[in-house]
Amino acid sequence: MGSVLTAIRQYIQLEDNEEVLIAGLFHERHFAAGEHFLAEGDVCRHVAFIETGLMRYYLNDDGQERTIFFSQENEFVCNYQSFLPRSSSRVAIQALEDTTLSLIGFDDLQILYARVRQGERFGRLAIEHVFVSALEQLRSLYTDPPEVRYRRFLDGFPGLAQRVPQYYIASYVGIQPQSLSRIRRRMTDKG
């Protein structure tokens, strides 16, 4: 629970009684590698904080999975397009490793916003961070060559290249696994 509080404190200051309230709103859940936090077609009912582990966001596009994002320790995970309007999700979120999450439901998040002095500010700043990150990823996909997108992956997710199967990384970068192998080889030759 301390990790969640530390993450929230990056956005706002908390008083002792607010920390106690927040601790009571989150609950812990474990996901085995391969298990889904959110399946396609389900409604995302929680915002989660990753205590340990690694999650992958992906879309199913004509039977082909397309990885669109990764979240790891000390990051929040949620499909806000489903969570906020409480609608079915096109995105699936899957544990790539055994993962421990601290979860908060929609109604409890509303309590956090209302009863924590700067709770709504926290929500706004966290969503702004997600929004800017998504826009940057989209821009990169349309304007950057694959090698630049791969370098952005390495910079944006330090250490993940050793934890994530290469075909998921290739999907995230928007290329075939063979193309990623060539890019990695070129980078090693230059390096």
UniProtKB/TrEMBL annotation:
<dbReference type="Pfam" id="PF00027">
    <property type="entry name" value="cNMP_binding"/>
</dbReference>
<dbReference type="InterPro" id="IPR014710">
    <property type="entry name" value="RmlC-like_jellyroll"/>
</dbReference>
<dbReference type="InterPro" id="IPR018490">
    <property type="entry name" value="cNMP-bd_dom_sf"/>
</dbReference>
<protein>
    <submittedName>
        <fullName>CRP-like cAMP-binding protein</fullName>
    </submittedName>
</protein>
<dbReference type="InterPro" id="IPR000595">
    <property type="entry name" value="cNMP-bd_dom"/>
</dbReference>
<feature type="domain" description="Cyclic nucleotide-binding">
    <location>
        <begin position="10"/>
        <end position="68"/>
    </location>
</feature>
